Task: inverse folding
């Protein structure tokens, strides 16, 4: 279908720089294989709007939606972008609808491609994706089998092993380089770690499983294979990447393998918002992008901010202007205000909590709803005193930045049963599922799975020699397994949930109602997908989050947001308060290198640019730090963050709380 007659009236709703970015590579009303394009989009400048408009414009001018690789940072961002593209196309082309089959996170797109080419990397298309905890369990099994794990000094912990392996792969570094740069104290363990990691890779292949990082590693491997790589390169005419500042070296490598000369590549991002180095993301990807391809890169900068007042932006610009090696840009806005940002000093952390609650209630009286307010912290534990004060004052809140839905044991139980059904070679899932049956212990589960490795659950349960005490439960579970084989999705999930609810009611003594509610939430979430395989992949790739929440009786939606800065990225509120803006917190005491300090500066900048109308930074003059005996030590006097020198603090109103 040709879309070249698209009405371009919608383009006039964009500003000059946005239109330049959207129209780049369109010649004579036709999409071309253009030189690489970098859109440097500052906070609040309409990044998603521009990227979706660009995708829609390319499609309207002849680009085929099924030949576009559109990668976003989160599943939610992908859904928003696709919805906007579809809305644009429908509005401009009299209701024409399009699909973007390769739009999603890097990992979700990789998952879909690996299903197609699984045999090329030693898997079947029914492979399952291990979540973080299951991957850790498998790493622990491999580590224990090394023969040295009993000696605590012989090997790093399982968690450290996982961290080293993940960083090495995402940073696209050898094990030696990873240890030298990131984990220097572990260099002496290089050889045993190399052995453990090789065994871990083999163990996953044997079980027809992949972990989260494998999805990108295997995709890069496929792209390096001459025949498959050429097939994929011919498949995609355009590659569009959102939040490029948050990509790691492996993700950039995939982009280069897909488009070696950069033709058809568009990336959008803001180096001033690069805050995920702990996930192996590197700000160098976006800063070196203009010189990363043989073809000259077009750079378009978006600086007009549609979110914040001009005074908030001037303070934010002042903070980030002191950064090293950043793209030069100054955000500006037509939104005027007489209110300067506020820099408040309080007596101590308890005084900080009281000041925050007093301010929140005062704003509420001035018709700023709780849901329009947020309190941001560097790390989750910093909000402990504030949470107590909020509860005491009856202020409903939800807290983001910690608990994950899939960490709950009852959720993992249900998913294990489903995973074993979908992939009988997944011994980790089978082991957990068998332990749900009364009368079956670890020894029996291990023996059965080893003897009948890869057999479908209902067949295994029919042939295996089980303890007499467990026979009743085994028979019921076998009937469930047979029912799953005969059911379509999502009926299979509902069968598992029905079986598990009965077990939960029989075994659970605490928080039964909340656990049953979680299962209902899982059922609703599962209904969004077309198959159990797709559902399992998505919950592993982008697990739904749970907020710690206290509801308002008057308005369930009118609750204050309490969040870490990392979890607040991409969001906005009318009023934002940032706590503990002092040395040791922002920047963190762990930030020793110049690169780490620069990322801490960017973290503060991200927090500040979440505010629309009101911004307040707070720091206590002193705080108490408990020693191991839980006895308060002498008062520690605080020093204002080094990111707020006089040249920056002059942009604030200075107050004492």
Result:
């Amino acid at each position: 279908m040709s879309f070249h007659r698209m009405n371009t009236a919608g383009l006039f709703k964009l500003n000059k720089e946005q239109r330049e970015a959207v129209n780049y590579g369109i010649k004579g009303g036709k999409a071309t294989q253009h030189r690489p394009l970098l859109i440097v989009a500052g906070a609040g400048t309409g990044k998603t709007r521009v990227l979706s408009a660009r995708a829609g414009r390319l499609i309207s001018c002849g680009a085929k939606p099924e030949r576009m690789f559109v990668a976003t940072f989160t599943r939610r961002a992908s859904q928003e972008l696709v919805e906007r593209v579809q809305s644009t196309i429908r509005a401009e082309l009299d209701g024409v609808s399009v699909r973007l089959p390769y739009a999603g996170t890097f990992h979700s797109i990789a998952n879909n491609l690996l299903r197609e080419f699984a045999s090329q990397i030693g898997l079947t298309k029914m492979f399952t994706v291990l979540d973080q905890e299951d991957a850790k369990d498998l790493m622990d099994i491999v580590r224990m089998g090394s023969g040295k794990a009993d000696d605590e000094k012989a090997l790093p912990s399982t968690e450290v092993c996982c961290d080293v392996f993940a960083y090495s792969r995402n940073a696209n570094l050898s094990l030696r380089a990873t240890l030298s740069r990131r984990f220097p104290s572990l260099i002496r363990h290089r050889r045993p770690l190399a052995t453990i990691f090789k065994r871990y890779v083999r163990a996953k292949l044997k079980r027809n499983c992949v972990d989260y990082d494998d999805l990108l590693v295997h995709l890069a491997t496929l792209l390096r294979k001459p025949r498959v790589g050429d097939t994929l390169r011919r498949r995609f005419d355009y590659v569009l990447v959102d939040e490029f500042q948050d990509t790691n070296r492996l993700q950039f490598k995939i982009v280069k393998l897909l488009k070696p000369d950069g033709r058809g590549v568009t990336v959008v991002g803001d180096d001033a918002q690069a805050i995920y180095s702990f996930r192996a993301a590197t700000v160098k990807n976006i800063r070196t992008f203009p010189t990363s391809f043989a073809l000259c890169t077009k750079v378009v900068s978006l600086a007009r901010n549609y979110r914040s007042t001009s005074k908030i932006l001037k303070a934010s610009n002042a903070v980030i202007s002191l950064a090293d090696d950043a793209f030069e840009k100054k955000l500006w806005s037509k939104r005027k205000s007489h209110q300067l940002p506020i820099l408040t000093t309080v007596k101590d952390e308890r005084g900080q909590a009281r000041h925050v609650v007093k301010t929140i209630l005062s704003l509420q009286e001035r018709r700023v709803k709780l849901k329009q307010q947020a309190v941001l912290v560097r790390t989750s534990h910093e909000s402990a005193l504030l949470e107590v004060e909020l509860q005491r004052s009856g202020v409903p809140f939800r807290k983001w930045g910690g608990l994950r839905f899939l960490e709950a044991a009852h959720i993992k139980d249900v998913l294990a049963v489903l995973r074993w059904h979908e992939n009988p070679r997944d011994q980790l899932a089978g082991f957990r599922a068998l332990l749900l049956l009364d009368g079956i212990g670890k020894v029996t589960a291990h023996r059965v799975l080893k003897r009948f490795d890869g057999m479908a659950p209902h067949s295994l349960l029919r042939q295996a020699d089980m303890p007499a005490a467990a026979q009743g439960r085994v028979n019921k579970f076998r009937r469930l397994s047979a029912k799953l084989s005969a059911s379509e999705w999502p009926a299979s999930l509902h069968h598992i949930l029905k079986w598990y609810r009965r077990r939960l009611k029989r075994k659970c003594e605490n928080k039964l109602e909340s656990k049953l509610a979680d299962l209902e939430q899982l059922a609703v979430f599962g209904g969004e997908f077309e198959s159990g395989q797709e559902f399992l992949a998505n919950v592993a790739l982008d697990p739904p989050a749970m907020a710690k929440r206290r509801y308002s009786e008057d308005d369930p939606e009118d609750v204050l947001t309490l969040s870490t800065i990392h979890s607040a990225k991409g969001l906005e509120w009318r009023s934002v308060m940032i706590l503990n803006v002092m040395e040791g917190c922002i920047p963190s005491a762990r930030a020793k290198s110049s690169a780490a300090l620069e990322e801490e500066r960017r973290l503060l900048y991200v927090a500040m640019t979440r505010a629309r109308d009101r911004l307040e930074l707070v720091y206590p003059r002193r705080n108490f730090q408990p020693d191991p005996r839980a006895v308060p030590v002498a008062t520690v006097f605080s020093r204002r963050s080094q990111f707020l020198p006089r040249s920056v603090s002059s942009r604030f109103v200075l107050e004492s709380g």
Remarks:
- The two ends are 64 Å apart (CA to CA).
